[in-house]
Amino acid sequence: MLTRRTFRAALIAVCTLSLIGAALWWFNRTDDAPYAVSAGGPRVTLAYDGERPDEDVATFLTVFVQRLAAGDVKGVDALADGYPDGSGATRESSDFLRPLAASAAAGKVTAKVAGVEDARSLPQRLKALGGGTSQADLALADGKHLRVQLAREHGVWWGYALAPAG
Per the UniProt record, which residue ranges are transmembrane (predicted)? Predict the structure, then answer.
């Protein structure tokens, strides 16, 4: 039978563990992406082929296209800094991204975004909450194409460009 003393000790233990869990979550969260659409940057029009992705993916893609349209290849590469094991691939992207700057600035860019998947194991999911992967195919105004590999780590989307498809 549960005595008052045992009940009180169990209640205190549960409350303490809850507070510790809440504190760990609070200090490890990253609700806000470290990038934003620039008011001073080039104005870009991004349309979606199919369903519009969630707001965080849409913001990421708008920032990506805006930086590309401005010719800011280093800024585009910086959008991969939080990508798990993928930031090294961005170092090679400058060669094929620079010529696409004028194409991105030429007009409407159409994006087709795949659904979010999370194929990580349960321990990896618990270690880094708010994860997942996706990809976006961008069709630039002049018919050129670009694929962006996306990953969400700790609730923030990151991504890098793969060589153009056409």
Answer: 7-27
